[in-house]
From TrEMBL, chain A:
<keyword id="KW-1133">Transmembrane helix</keyword>
<dbReference type="GO" id="GO:0022857">
    <property type="term" value="F:transmembrane transporter activity"/>
</dbReference>
<dbReference type="Pfam" id="PF00528">
    <property type="entry name" value="BPD_transp_1"/>
</dbReference>
<dbReference type="InterPro" id="IPR035906">
    <property type="entry name" value="MetI-like_sf"/>
</dbReference>
<dbReference type="InterPro" id="IPR000515">
    <property type="entry name" value="MetI-like"/>
</dbReference>
<keyword id="KW-1003">Cell membrane</keyword>
<keyword id="KW-0813">Transport</keyword>
<protein>
    <submittedName>
        <fullName>Glutamate transport system permease protein</fullName>
    </submittedName>
</protein>
<comment type="similarity">
    <text>Belongs to the binding-protein-dependent transport system permease family. HisMQ subfamily.</text>
</comment>
<keyword id="KW-0812">Transmembrane</keyword>
<dbReference type="InterPro" id="IPR010065">
    <property type="entry name" value="AA_ABC_transptr_permease_3TM"/>
</dbReference>
<dbReference type="GO" id="GO:0043190">
    <property type="term" value="C:ATP-binding cassette (ABC) transporter complex"/>
</dbReference>
<keyword id="KW-0029">Amino-acid transport</keyword>
<feature type="domain" description="ABC transmembrane type-1">
    <location>
        <begin position="15"/>
        <end position="204"/>
    </location>
</feature>
<dbReference type="InterPro" id="IPR043429">
    <property type="entry name" value="ArtM/GltK/GlnP/TcyL/YhdX-like"/>
</dbReference>
<dbReference type="GO" id="GO:0006865">
    <property type="term" value="P:amino acid transport"/>
</dbReference>
<feature type="transmembrane region" description="Helical">
    <location>
        <begin position="20"/>
        <end position="42"/>
    </location>
</feature>
Amino acid sequence: MQFLIESGDVLLEGFLATLRMLALTVLLALPLGVVLAAMRISPVPSLRWVATGFTELLRNTPLTLVFFLLVFVVPRLGVVVDFQISAVIALTLYTAPFYAEAIRSGVNSVPVGQAEAARSVGLTFSQTARFVIIPQALRSVVPPLINVTIALTKNTSVAGGFLVFELFASSRRLANSYADETIAIFLAVAACYLLVTIPLGRIADRLEKKVAVMR
Amino acid sequence: MTSVLYDVPGPKARRRSLIASIATGLLLAGALAWVIATLAGEGLFDAERWDIFQDPLVWAALGNALLVTLQVAVLASVLAVLVGSVFAVLRLSSLKIVRVPVTVVLEFFRGMPVLLMMFFILILFATSQYWAVVMGLALYNGAIIGEALRSGIVALPKGQREAGLALGLSPLKARLLIEFPQAFRAMTPIIVAQLVVLLKDSSLGYIVGLEELVRRQRTLAEFYGFSQYGFSFFVITLLAFLIVNLTLSWFARRLASRTPGGRGPRRAARAAIGESADTTVIRTAGAGGA
């Protein structure tokens, strides 16, 4: 009985910490992703190069290393911040390029004829983007954005390995104190993650079908 | 790069673009110079922080750990492809008694963090860290590859299966001999891309306590003094991962561009991979990365 009460509290606390981290990261990474995506399709070559370089660098670096840099290496250089903040920064840096790629592929999914038509009517680059491409791209961009967010939800668990208290860390703590209840703890924690990822996946699937029918 | 989004720039636009380029270039150079100056100010490029790398023993220790990382990744990749193939075929089974439980298990594996899986394999089955990491990676990525293969099979023209059945193959044989090989070929770029993700995820072994590259570099840095060598070991490790991963990503992209344009699944695979080299953006795999 004591197990149920105490573990329930710890799990709930961990779950809330995970959700908070998730929300903060989405709020920061999504705008950064939009900026990166805009840079990658912009007419100015140097902007494209910078965005491409940043994307390639971070997509080929394991998240564990990004965390390692921000939690252990950067503080030794004199920049000391709270681990929670380091974790959100690490997740943001890692996720933003994935958001950017999702947005870019959404933009690319708009048929070329649309842009050609807009251009031949005399719209400029920014007008074409604002009135023709982006409104159409937004629709097909949402499902991949949700998929990246699902991946992000799972990635928040890495923070638990870097001194941040969240859902994964809470499962570790519980598994230490209640060695007999390991299976129950595992299922409960997995259920918490599934509670976020499965509904998000369903929404993405449904939206995707809707977009597919319209095309 | 030409684009329909804007005209081929004229002299005026070219000048403006050049100015913008120079401005960002300067800004970037400035930022880079600031970072380098700050790092140099901290003495991070001093010889005493890097002298350790004259010692072949350090390189041997790092090399061994890199081998562990690669070994884990290769072993898990092979298992993940096998697991994925089995999942894909079972999930499309005509028997409800097979299909439903497999679907539930797949959703379960795909929806939770790999790290959680590794950790609980470690304590539930009392295995070594090595096998916990390998099995965690194999099951998680197997579930994702399974979904990709399944969507590959579903996207095949119906005639393929019907022709097989008309020739007198049993339903299972038609699936295994006719549909599966085609789906597998079509989805190869996605599978390779997922294996890049798997390689990156092998570094999660650090958290579970496996002595792979990330943990080894930390152990070494701490042994020789973290405040002195922490930064240099991190840089070397980062470079090692970048070299391996960029090679693999390049290979995945090449494979995708060489996949001949066909109908259905091939095009889907090409689209998914061409847009973004290592996220599986197809809707069945909400993997995204790491």
